[in-house]
Every structure is written in C-alpha cells, then in structure tokens.
Structure to design on (115 residues):
C-alpha cells in the first residue's frame, strides 16, 4: 500500500485535478492527471457506490489499483497528481487484466519513464 505522503487527500487538490487535469480512458478505467509542482506523485482511487453497494468489493478494487500503482511507482515520472476512476465493468475483471489496463493508461498519458 502506498504511504500516506503519496495519497491525494485534500478537497482542494481533488477539485483542481478534476477541473484542470488531463483525461485518459481505456476500457473500464479512467485517469485524471495534473502536474503538481512537487517532487512526488500523489494518487487517489475513487471507487464509488456505482461500482458496487458492497464495501468489500469496492475495497478489493481499490487495493488492486493501489498495488498496481505501487509496483509501477518507480517507473512513473515524478510531479503528478493522479486520480484513478474505475467504472462498474471492472467488477468481473481479473487482476492481471486490471494491471495491464492501468499500465496502458499510464503509457497513454506518457507518465512512464519508458513510454
């Protein structure tokens, strides 16, 4: 799990990313990305009630997205606020499919060092 300093927490930061951030989508995951003028990346995973009414399922998806972000953390260029927004279609997907899709989105956004 990513440590607290790499989490996007404040409401003002969320609003700024949603208003000014670049938008990327692939299959069942959307990204909002904005440069943050810091030397670190900050992540947020927004898994709402539209995904599932059951907190257990929402938390599982949030954990899977968090693990992928943690595994790719060193490959992501620093200085971005990143909000990950899954859609309800993610529920039936395997972890490997989720991982591949999120990595493809990072590549599409050109925030990976090797993209």
């Amino acid at each position: 799990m990513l440590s607290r300093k790499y989490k996007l927490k404040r409401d003002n930061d969320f609003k700024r990313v949603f208003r000014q951030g670049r938008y990327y989508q692939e299959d069942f995951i959307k990204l909002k990305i904005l440069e943050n003028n810091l030397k670190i990346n900050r992540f947020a995973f927004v898994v709402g009630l539209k995904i599932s009414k059951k907190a257990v399922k929402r938390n599982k998806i949030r954990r899977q997205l968090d693990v992928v972000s943690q595994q790719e953390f060193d490959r992501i260029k620093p200085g971005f606020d990143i909000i990950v927004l899954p859609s309800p279609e993610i529920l039936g997907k395997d972890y490997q499919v989720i991982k591949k899709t999120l990595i493809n989105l990072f590549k599409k956004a050109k925030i990976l060092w090797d993209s």
